């Protein structure tokens, strides 16, 4: 499966799960990832709980539920690689206008992940990345 093609052509809702150093889980709605390579994706993150959790525990899971299909989608199991704070780069990659709850000066991060494993939304079938 090619992540770039999948996310370019499939609409849906994404949820990222992160965990802090003590094991407390957080979930948050996230847009589709920016696919940077075969097994590399990036998300634009605000300086909130999900981002803070990644500084303590570098593992995350992104669940993507396809729009209009009953329980179809993917789960991406990911490891934090690095982050970029270049606000101009982040603005150029942003797909949507600023949200109403976003502060004027709220710092954003472009967070890069390695995709370790991709599973179907339901069941344990693992997808091979191309």
UniProtKB/TrEMBL annotation:
<protein>
    <recommendedName>
        <fullName>Pyridoxamine 5'-phosphate oxidase</fullName>
    </recommendedName>
</protein>
<dbReference type="InterPro" id="IPR012349">
    <property type="entry name" value="Split_barrel_FMN-bd"/>
</dbReference>
């Amino acid at each position: 499966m090619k992540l770039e093609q999948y996310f370019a052509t499939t609409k849906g809702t994404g949820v990222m799960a992160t965990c802090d150093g003590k094991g407390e889980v957080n979930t948050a709605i996230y847009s589709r990832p920016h696919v940077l390579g075969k097994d590399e994706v990036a998300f634009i993150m605000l300086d909130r709980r999900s981002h803070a959790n990644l500084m303590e525990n570098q593992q995350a899971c992104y669940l993507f539920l396809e729009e209009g299909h009953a329980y179809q989608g993917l789960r991406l199991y990911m490891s934090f690689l690095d982050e970029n704070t270049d606000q101009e780069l982040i603005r150029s990659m942003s797909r949507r206008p600023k949200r109403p709850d976003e502060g004027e000066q709220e710092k954003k991060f472009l967070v890069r992940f390695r995709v370790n494993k991709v599973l179907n939304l339901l069941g344990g079938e693992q997808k091979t990345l191309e």
